[in-house]
Specification:
Blueprint: H1 3-9, E1 13-21, H2 27-43, E2 47-63, E3 66-78, H3 83-91, E4 96-103
Function: Binds together with bS18 to 16S ribosomal RNA.
Family: Belongs to the bacterial ribosomal protein bS6 family.
Protein name: Small ribosomal subunit protein bS6
Length: 105
């Protein structure tokens, strides 16, 4: 593998993470959780482009007997090798009901 190919493999790639926060979490707790996730991303080398709070929305199906959740979308750039570690930490956050990370082209 040549030098240019290695640089391309380790290049920063654009991602989006969408996560749903439990609706029982108060506004201050939501803001704290959003900041915690953004800090987790930046601590792992991510550059955050924007974070959008979509607000509370009805879920397509109940999750943990909840019919709604607070949606947040964050766009960031990151080296993909550290993504699994970030996702593992988000998985154990009790206030996050679901999350998905998508690589943007």
């Amino acid at each position: 593998m040549g030098k240019n190919q290695r640089e391309e493999v380790n290049a920063m790639k654009k991602y989006e993470i969408m996560y749903i926060i439990n609706p029982t979490v108060l506004e201050e707790g939501r803001d704290e959780l959003i900041n915690q996730i953004n800090s987790l991303l930046t601590a792992n080398g991510a550059t955050i482009a924007k974070t959008e709070k979509w607000g509370e929305r009805k879920l397509a199906y109940p999750i943990d007997k909840k019919k709604s959740g607070f949606y947040v979308l964050t766009t960031f750039e990151m080296d993909g090798t550290k993504l699994a570690e970030v996702e593992a930490k988000i998985n154990i956050m009790e206030a996050v009901m679901r999350h998905i990370v998508v690589r943007l082209d």
